[in-house]
Write a structure and sequence with these properties.
Layout (H helix, E strand, L loop, with lengths): L10 E4 L5 H11 L3 E6 L12 E2 L2 E2 H7 L3 E5 L4 H11 L4 E4 L5 H4 L4 H7 L4 E6 L14 H7 L2 H9 L10 H24 L3 E6 H7 L4 H5 L15 E3 L5 E4 L7 H7 L11 H12 L5 H9 L5 E3 L3 H5 L2 H6 L2 E5 L2 E4 L23 H9 L3 H9 L3 E2 L4
Parallel strand pairs: 1-2, 1-6, 2-5, 6-7, 7-8
Antiparallel strand pairs: 3-4, 5-14, 9-10, 10-11, 12-13
Length: about 375
Amino acid sequence: MALPRPLEGVRVLDLSQIIAGPACGRVLADLGAEVIKIESPGGDLSRTVPPIINGIGALYAQMNAGKRHLCVDIRTAAGAELIARMAEQSDVLIENFRPGVLTARGLGYAALAARNPRLIYLSISGFGQTGVWSERRAHAPLLHAEGGTIEVAARLRGQQPVPEVHQHADLYSGHFGVSAVCAALYQREHTGAGQHLDVALAEVLLYASDQVVMDLLDYEGPREFDTWTYPVVTLASGEIVCLVGNPLRLYGRWMAALGADPGVPPADEHTANAKVTEAVRRFGDAAALQAALAADRLVCTVVQRSTTLLASEWAQERQVLGLAAPGVRAPAAPWRSSAAEIRMAGPAKGIGADTRDILRELLDLEEPEIDALAASGVIRADGV
């Protein structure tokens, strides 16, 4: 007997693009919601981010797998009205336009809530929907710089600042958006009313940092979970290994396990790291090093690409990957349930691939009406 899907029966209109909003919609789709990805005729900007596999951008596929694809030009009055009518029959709307953009097109929260008081409207922006910075443009790299993400990493490592590789602010905000939407759906079960959810990337980035509270206290002493101090060493085999632990606190145990003369106990982490690194380099490969450390329950692992982990027996057994688009594999939903089915709902598609079906199902439009909208440029239904 098939297990139910947690958000089955929930309809989501996803007007967002790039990462933050789409990541939220992707998780809701994994949870079983019907998520309708609404794009302009030009498509989500992430569609053009390489690599492009079989006509679908890989990043786009990862963020939009499992969604239905509708193409409507909301810059037109007719297109905006189509979305407003769909909102009357939907549970959730996700958007990450600059504050005020959708309001000017008749698609703001107040206008849509008047037509559907049960609508949960999620707005994701850089600095929030209100306040002196609400109009500021914001991207994840800007927030990593302003929010301390780059600075604290450089300060604690004693290095020059470097940009972040991952889009932390965007991804965290998308996932916090999921929590907000699910909480709002639960609240609506008791009140019958929807609400406007305001998620600011800057606030999320600060909330998700485990270092902010120490900086607020001007604390300069030792910090626990100081993973930036862990020794990373290249062995003669070419393997790069990471020892798990602070080199100063574990210095004596490590040196004993490595069979090295500890000498004069080091006074600082830098010196301890250098001495441990020298002792580690005597080992020819990771297996020999791990065997030596295991006798004292010390941990060492090999630094590797994500693809190595994804090819492991563990990843195969857990079915960590799903097909996000033809030829594009991507991580599937990262949790399991004993009472529900949680999975990637299907592949991402071309622009407007489901436009005709959605307009027929939700708005009862006939083919001549759909053809007229396509001819006038209000919609795109070719799916390319």
